[in-house]
Amino acid sequence: MADRKILLIGTAAAIGVLAGGALFLTMRGGDDRFAQCSSSAVAGGMDAFGTDFTLTRDDGRRVTSAEVFDKPSLLYFGYTFCPDVCPLDAARNAEAEALVQEAGHDVQTVFVTVDPRRDTPEVLADYTSLFSDTMIGLTGTDEEIAAVNRGWRNYYKAHDEEDQEYYLVDHMTNTYLVMPGGKTVEFFSREADPERMAETVACYAEAA
């Protein structure tokens, strides 16, 4: 079956400042156990997304990617000072999480900061608690955060040249579905509604 390619643009808005990255996507067919759940994947396969890591959780504990991804997880990259996009996306992801849990599946949301200078574990703990009791916030050194973002091909850039306190950060806004063991199997754009996300996540959870 011939592949059909479409173009996805991921963008983040911050007080009129927009930044984004383009991902080339292709409709995927296949006979693996998740084939019936997937509608799209990045050209070359979703296996190209993800990386092992050790980061600091919002409770201050150092955790590995294997410890974090012990259940289906909706992974998002953002920052707590984000004025509009991040809280909307975090709330949407938390709503999808609740819908999947109501359907009887154990899932979670994960929020990785792109602003480790300001997003300490304590700041992340306060932030994630606004959306979900089970949302995991992760931070680390500049190098650790850069490596994780590279693993998921996530563009971000801090505009802190003139203001070291109230700066904004451009970043992509895709949410990734990561299965236990760290395998990234799906992504969702900002346009995805929580009901569609929940249906897709539940399909993967049932097929796992």
UniProtKB/TrEMBL annotation:
Binding residues annotated for Cu cation, in chain numbering: 82, 86, 171
Transmembrane parts of this sequence: 6-25
Molecular functions (GO terms): metal ion binding
Keywords: Copper, Disulfide bond, Membrane, Metal-binding, Transmembrane, Transmembrane helix
Disulfide bonds: 82-86
Pfam families for the chain: SCO1-SenC (PF02630)
Annotated PANTHER family: ELECTRON TRANSPORT PROTIN SCO1/SENC FAMILY MEMBER, LINALOOL DEHYDRATASE_ISOMERASE DOMAIN-CONTAINING PROTEIN
Family: Belongs to the SCO1/2 family.
Protein name: SCO family protein
Organism (species): Paracoccus aestuarii
